[in-house]
């Protein structure tokens, strides 16, 4: 106790220095300090107790020196990593969230797991919704391909597409994930890209008539192969390029002329531009959850100390589903 205000231990994951190449657990360390359980008098701050934290590939981008981006800012070496999560409000200068800060969403629906708000009902869910329904113009019968299809975003895009009556194929990095897509998530087909010697041939096998919509999470050789298999006036929604995040030099592409030949629309997007649609998203997705029409895979690891390993594991495909760190049950 200090000045009548309780103090508690506060753990943080600290970035040692800017990262080059593949991230390692040793690029981060966990430290413990103390924090007072009271916001300063007259402050508009929120004091939060983290319950669940979200591990997302974009965090790797922020561990590097970022130039020319108005979407992401670099983490500061020696300071904590920050991201999305679910937290309990312990003290607030915003009574009943009447002046709720822009990046905070108050949870009103608690009949679903709170961890879902790091994934299905959080940033990844909004990313899937915006990238598929807003960036693209899907319609029944479209042929949809999704890379990194067992991840936090890809698994949802596939299910949204199936609910619209599309034909859906996903690529993943293991036989286990292929089975999950086909037998649990309802994809029509799936393949393990690591076992395919020729990605162009693999796509032609699954899409003999071509691809209408590609939801891009990977980049690299996969995007080059997809460009050869897009149908005229096809749409590519660029969510992420995870194969590029650890490269010291940007990777080029060989088949960009296909964009011209087939009049393909390829558009990158940032989910932050679509947060105003969150109520619309909830109206769509909550009934699906309650009716059991959407399945969501989570990979939950316990304790803040496990966060560096969980984050690094994203880049080797160690996780199955949305990677979540459970910090506290309550």
From TrEMBL:
Q: Which UniProt keywords apply?
A: Oxidoreductase
Domain of life from the UniProt record? Eukaryota
Domain Enoyl reductase (ER) stretches: 46-325
Which residue ranges run through the membrane? Answer: none
Q: Which InterPro entries match?
A: ADH-like_C, ADH_N_2, ER, GroES-like_sf, MDR_fam, NAD(P)-bd_dom_sf
GO MF, any single term = 2-alkenal reductase [NAD(P)H] activity
Keyword Oxidoreductase among record annotations: yes
The protein's name: 2-alkenal reductase (NADP(+)-dependent)-like
């Amino acid at each position: 106790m200090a000045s009548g205000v309780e103090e508690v231990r506060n753990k943080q994951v600290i970035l040692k220095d800017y990262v080059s190449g593949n991230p390692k657990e040793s690029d981060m360390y966990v430290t413990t300090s103390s924090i007072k359980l009271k916001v300063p008098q007259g402050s508009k701050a929120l004091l939060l107790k983290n319950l669940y934290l979200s591990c997302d590939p974009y965090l790797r981008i922020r561990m590097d020196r970022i130039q020319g981006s108005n979407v992401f800012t670099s983490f500061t070496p020696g300071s904590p990593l920050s991201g999305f999560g679910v937290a309990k409000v312990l003290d607030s200068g915003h009574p009943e969230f009447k002046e709720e800060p822009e990046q905070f969403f108050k949870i009103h629906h608690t009949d679903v797991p709170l961890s879902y708000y790091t994934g299905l009902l959080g940033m990844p869910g909004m990313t899937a919704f915006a990238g598929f329904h807003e960036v693209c113009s899907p319609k029944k019968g479209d042929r949809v391909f999704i890379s990194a299809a067992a991840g936090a975003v890809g698994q949802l895009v596939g299910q949204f597409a199936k609910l619209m009556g599309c034909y859906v194929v996903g690529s993943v990095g293991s036989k286990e994930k292929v089975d999950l897509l086909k037998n649990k998530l309802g994809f029509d087909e799936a393949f393990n890209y690591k076992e395919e010697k020729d990605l162009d041939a693999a796509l032609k096998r699954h899409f003999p008539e071509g691809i209408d919509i590609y939801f891009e999470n990977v980049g690299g050789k996969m995007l080059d192969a997809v460009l050869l298999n897009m149908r005229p006036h096809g749409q590519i929604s660029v969510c992420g390029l995870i194969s590029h995040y650890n490269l010291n030099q940007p990777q080029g592409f060989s088949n960009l002329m296909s964009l011209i030949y087939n009049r393909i629309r390829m558009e990158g997007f940032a989910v932050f531009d679509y947060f105003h649609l969150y109520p619309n998203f909830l109206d769509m997705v909550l009934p699906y959850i309650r009716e059991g029409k959407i399945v969501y895979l989570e990979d939950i690891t316990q304790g803040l100390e496990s966060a560096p390993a969980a984050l690094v594991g994203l880049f080797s495909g160690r996780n199955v589903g949305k990677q979540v760190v459970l910090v506290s049950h309550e």
